Amino acid sequence: MGHGHGKGPGQWCHGKFRGCGYRMTTGREAVLDVLSQANEHLSAEDIYMKIHPVYPAIGLTSIYRTLDILVNIGLIHKFDFGHGRARYELTEGPKGKRHHHHLVCTGCGRVIDYTDFIDEEVALLKKTEEGLSKKYNFRIDNHLIQFYGLCDACNRS
Fold first, then answer.
1. Is 87 in the same domain as 104?
2. 122-132: pLDDT as tens digits
3. Are residues 73 and 123 in the same domain?
4. What is the pTM of this model?
5. Which of 39, 83, 89, 129 has the most CB atoms around it within 10 Å of its CB?
6. Domains identified in the chain, total number
């Protein structure tokens, strides 16, 4: 039983799965494992390429299905940055929320994650969340903010 405990999503994922009435299957575990080790946003094809050598039985279709389930139960985010190919990332890591925003370049499709929030920004977001929670009687667990524009390189050309 020694596999997957030092690295990867480990126990917090399993709990969340059972809480949503899903079993943790090899395929789901493999997808979460790949995403937990990725330091960029991966497409379904990227994930498939990484899983295939280890689990040749898991096809691309079942990876798409798995990703849909993971999105539905809130374990991963799905992004469509506009060039047709959806990309995925974990909503949280083993160390809790991985809070960041995206700067998306509409020119070349580059996505910059930024986490170095300034204090005013954090305060403003807290206020916004509190306001929305009150207004709609809604418990907010997470949010995602994307800014669209041109990166340095596209801006210069």
1. no
2. 788 889 989 99
3. no
4. 0.63
5. 89
6. 2
